[in-house]
Amino acid sequence: MPASYGAGMSNSAAAAVLTTADLSEAIRAVRTLLGIADIRQGEVDFEGVIRSPDVLEQVRHVLPDLVWWALAGEEHGSSEAGDNPADHLPIRVFDWGRPLDRAEPFITALGPDPAAVRWDLDAWPAVPEAGLEAISQKWAYLTLTVNSRDLYQDEPSQDHTVHVHARDRNGDQTARVHWLADQVGGRFTGRVQLAPL
User: Fold this and answer.
1) Which pairs from 66-72 meet CB under 8 Å and 24+ separation?
2) Strands ordered across the beta sheet of 91-98
């Protein structure tokens, strides 16, 4: 991992609200949540582990300027060194600040390989009828882990999990998380992971 990654960053709590073996169901849930969020200036970030040449080719078609390094470590190959990623599989990839319309093509390109796709939102809006205040951009994110239960591809699985990040000014997110889970037919089970921002 590059030394600069994580430097000076704070953490966000990512709460799992839906886990499903049906990727199309997970994508529908993400679309529903994006429909609730303020996304006028939203961006999307990508992180994943690519194991096969076919997936690499498909992902590079969607995101041609990937930052990557060999899973065995940067000394075994990296984009910074100008190496060909196909010669160093499996690789870990990162891409930040992309337009929202890159997310679904990236997800489709993954095949069986694990990844996390994070939408950086402008806000979770207020929901007065549920007693929820607006949550600012600093704490408003949405992450879909594909073929993995966790944000870092350490727990590969054959299902996909939707996570919401929704901390309010009191540092609590429980009421918002339960409300968002309800909107997608999910359920918050208490599973939370810290994510660097």
Assistant:
1) 66/93, 66/94, 66/95, 67/2, 67/93, 67/94, 67/95, 68/92, 68/93, 68/94, 69/1, 69/2
2) 67-70, 91-98, 43-50, 115-120, 140-146, 160-166, 11-20, 192-196
Q: Please determine, for residue 87, whether its predicted confidence score (pLDDT) is greater than 50.
A: yes
DSSP code, position 147: S
Give ∠ CA 146-38-100 in degrees, rounded to 5.
45
Distance CA 114, CA 147 (A): 5
Which residue did the predictor score with more confidence, 166 or 123? Answer: 123
Residue 40, classed as helix, strand or coil, is: coil
CA distance 107 to 77: 24
Query: Helix or strand or coil: residue 12?
Result: strand
Residue 9: predicted pLDDT: 43
Band of residue 171 on the pLDDT scale cut at 50, 70, 90: low
Region of 31 please: left (phi>0), alpha (psi -120 to 50) or beta. Answer: alpha
First to last CA, the chain: 15
| pLDDT of residue 166 exceeding 90 | no
Q: How many CB atoms lie within 10 A of CB 185?
A: 13
CA–CA dist 157, 182 (Å, integer) = 24
What CA–CA distances, in Å, run from 74 to 28, 45, 69, 91, 140?
36, 21, 5, 10, 32
